[in-house]
Amino acid sequence: MTAILKVIKPGLQTTVQDLGRHGYQQYGISPSGAMDSFSMQIANILVGNAVGEAVLEASFIGPELEALTDIVIAVCGGFSPKVDGRKVPMWKSFLLKKGQKLQIGPSVNGARAYLAIAGGIDVPVVLDSKSTFLSSGFGGYKGRALQKGDRLSGSPVIRKPFKSLHPGLIPQFEKELNIRVIIGPHEEMFSEKSIIRFFSETYTVTPKSNRMGYQLKGPKLEHINGPDIISDPVPLGGIQVPASGQPIILMADRQTTGGYTRIGTVISADLPLLAQAVPGTKIMFSKVSIEEAQRFYLERGRLIKLLAMTVK
Amino acid sequence: MFEIKPLGDAAIRVSFSNDISIATHQKIKRFISVLEVEKIKGISEYVPAYNTVAIYYLPYIISYNELAGKLEEVYNTLPPEARYQPIVYEIPVYYGGETGTDLAYIAKYHKLKEEEVIDLHSSQEYLIYMMGFIPGFPYLGGLSEKLSVPRLEHPRLSVAAGSVGIGGKQTGIYPGSVPSGWRILGITPVKLFDIHNTPPSLFTMGNYIKFFPVDKKEFTRIKNLVEKKKYRVKTYIRSCEHD
Q1: A169, A197, A222 — which closes off a domain?
Q2: Which of B9, B49, B204 has the CB atom closest to A293's CB atom?
C-alpha cells in the first residue's frame, strides 16, 4: 500500500465509488455505486484496471489533488482535468508525476467526472464493496466525501502504453435528453391524461438533485386516489411521484423501499446519461418494452466487454 | 392474487395481495424460502416487502420472460402450509425522560398514565413485516390502537439513533439518526445496525420484537456493554406459528 494522492481541495462532493454494494437491500442498505457507471468503467479500462475497481466520483466542482508518487490515471465523464494549470485530455490515460497537481473540473457539460488510478484505490471493503454510502456514513474513504488533507492509498502500477477511447464512442452529454422508461409498477394509480402528459411533455432537472434522487419540474401528474402506496421496494431509476405531482428519479443512494406511487423506471442503458444531467437539463420520456430495454442492456454490456479487450 | 411486473429492466415485482395481512406476509415468507432453495441462476438479490417482493437479476444471465416463468412455477408449487418458529428479540427501552420527550404527549392524548402507555407498548410482540427505509430499520405491525397518535406537524430534523417512536398506526426504532415526524417515547441502547456484523442488521423480516422497560441506570449499564460489544440481545422462540 502506497500513498498516492493528497487532497488539496475536496471539491463539492468527491467520493470513492465502485459498481455498488449488492445483496443487502433486504436489510435496508442502498447499493450506492458510481452514478454514471459507463464513464466509470471506461476510466478503469483506460488505466488497465478491472472495470469494477473503485474510482473517485466528483460532482460539479471536482477536487484538486497532488500526486504523492508517479501514477497512471484517466479522467472520464462530464468535465475535464488540468495538470499544474494546463488542460489535459479526458478519456485518455496518462502519467501524473509525483508532486504534480491534478485539478478536475469545474463542470463543463456534465454533472460528474470519474478518476481511475492504475492499481486502484485502497479503502476497506465494507459489505463486499468499496462504495461510499454517504447518508449512513460507511464505505469508501471513512464513510464520507473527501476533505482537505485526506491521503488516499493504492497499489500503483505504471501501465504503458497509454490508452484512449475512440472519439466516436465518447458520450455526448446534451442539455436535452430522451430518456427511455419501462412503465409501472403503479401506472394504474395515475389518470390516463397524466400518463399521456408524462410521455409527451418536457420535464426539467432542478438543483434539488443529488446521489439520492433527481427532482424534476414540469406539468403536474395527477393521481386517481392519492400518491400513497403500501411501501414497496424501489429500484435504481424508479420514478416516484409524490402529492406534488412532480416526479423524482431515484438514484444510487436511494432508500431501498418507498411509500409513493411510481409511474415508471428508467432503463439501465440511459442511467449514465441521466447521471450526467445538470440542473436545467430538459428531459423527454419515451416508453419502451421490457424486451427492447433488455436488448439495450445487453448491447451496453457487450460494448464494455469489447472495449475492455480492445482499447489500446 | 399473484401478479408479475417488470420493475425496470433488471428487477421483477411480484405482488401477492392489495393489503397488509399476516396471511400475505406468511405467503411471502414461503415464497422466498423456496427461492432460497431453488437458487435460480441470475438472481442477485430479493427484497421482501408488505405485499410484494422485488427480485433483482442480471439480464445477461436470465431474461425477464424466462425469470417470470420460473417465478410463476415457484408460486404454483408453493407448499400450502409451513410452520415457522420465529425469533422474538427482547429490546430494552428507556421510556420517557429527555430521550423520550413525547411520552407525556402520548399519555395525555389517550388520557392514560405514562406507566400505562409503557405497559401497553411493551406488552406486545411486534411482527417485522419488512426491512427498509434506512439500514436496519424494521417496519413493524401490531401496535395497539390505544397508542396510535398523529405524526408531528413539523418533523424533527434529526432524532437520535435508537429512538423508539409512534407515527400514526405504526411503531418502530430508528437504527441511525434521521429526520422524523414520529412521536418519540423512548430510546434503546442496543445497536440495530453494525457493518461489522454478519448480517449487518440485527433484525430480519418475519421475526418479532418485544420491548421491555429499563430505567436510566440500566440503560447506561447496557449502553456501556454495547459499546464494549459485550451485550447480547435476549431472544426466545415464539410459540409455534402456522398459516
Answers
A1: A169
A2: B9
Digit-coded pLDDT (tens) for B66-106: 999 999 999 999 988 777 889 999 999 999 999 999 999 99
Phi then psi dihedrals of residue B33, to 5 deg: -70, -30
At a CB cut-off of 8 Å and minimum separation 6, what does B36 contact?
Answer: none
Residues A159 and A288 grouped into a single domain: no
Domains and CATH numbers, chain B: 3-81 (3.30.1360.40), 87-242 (2.40.100.10)
- Whether residue A155 lies inside any domain: the answer is yes
User: Which residue of A lies nearest to B45 if distances are taken between CA atoms?
Assistant: A23
Cβ-Cβ contacts under 8 Å, A257 against chain B: 47, 49, 130, 132-133, 139
Q: Can you tell me the ipTM of this complex?
A: 0.96
The answer to whether B98 contacts chain A (CB < 8 Å) is no
Among A169, A192, A227, which residue terminates a domain?
A169
Q: What are A196's three cell numbers?
A: 399521456
Count of domains observed in chain A: 2
CA distance B59 to A298: 7
Residue B241 above 70 pLDDT?
no
* Residue B136 to residue A184, Cβ atoms within 8 A: no
- Average pLDDT of chain A, as a whole number: 96
Examine the domain organization and report whether A24 and A138 are in the same domain.
Answer: yes
Query: Cβ A127–B46 below 8 Å, yes or no?
Result: no
Nearest to B49 among A232, A296, A298 (CB): A232
pTM for this structure? 0.95
Query: Could you tell me if A159 and A191 lie in one domain?
Result: no
Range of the domain at A74: 2-169
Q: Does residue A200 share a domain with residue A274? A: yes
In a domain, A154, yes or no: yes
Q: Does B23 touch chain A (CB under 8 A)?
A: no
Searching chain B, which residue's CA lies closest to the CA of residue A138?
Answer: B195
Taking the Cβ of residue B46 and every Cβ of chain A, the question of whether any pair is shorter than 8 Å is answered with: yes
Name the residue facing A22 among B44, B64, B136 (closest C-beta).
B44
pLDDT tens digit string along B33-63? 999 999 999 999 999 999 999 999 999 999 9
**B54 has a chain A CB within 8 A of its CB:** yes
Residue A253 resides in a domain: yes
Residue in chain B nearest A294 by alpha carbon: B9
Q: B204 in contact with A at a CB cutoff of 8 Å?
A: yes
